[in-house]
Here is the input.
Amino acid sequence: MKNSSASRQRRSIRLKTYDYSQSGWYFITICTQNHRCLFGKIIEDEMHLNSAGYMLQKEWMELPLRFNTIQLHEYIVMPNHFHGIIEIVGAPLVGARPETSILTSDKVKYGEGQPQGIAPTIGNIVGRFKSITTNQYIRGVKDQQWQAFIGKLWQRNYYEHIIRNEPAYLNIADYIQTNPQKWQQDIYYVG
Here is the structure.
């Protein structure tokens, strides 16, 4: 008989041999559970944040206070998802980095709540963001009558893409910036 917990495990969408704590640039996408539009609306090709959307933006901008080895780049809060570029600092883009520039744990001061000598991974950073925003959203439902969600605010996982060179970065940055203009063609569009 098969172990029932093993049969319920989800297949990871991460690269098996890749160290997601190493310096580099990462494009992430996080979606609401069931693609519920909770953070505002697209009106005339522009994203208009509601108070929940502003909360999300604020918490995103405060991530470097929690993880002082990251820098944030382009991002967009969409009605039911979030796109952003996170840079783990210390080296140029992943594909362009010489081996000698990889940071060692004694050369980096890690962020709040991060054990000394252990670099935060993209998973740690995204997990913290999802946790904080979920707690803030629950407060907003109670105190400001934000639209309630059923079960979970965010989908269980997130999407990430390792940005390997400058042309890829520029392409992704343009995608993020123009996302509201392409909302009705977006794979996450709910009309």
In short: Helices lie at 4-7, 51-61, 63-66, 122-144, 166-178. The first strand starts at residue 24 and ends at 31.
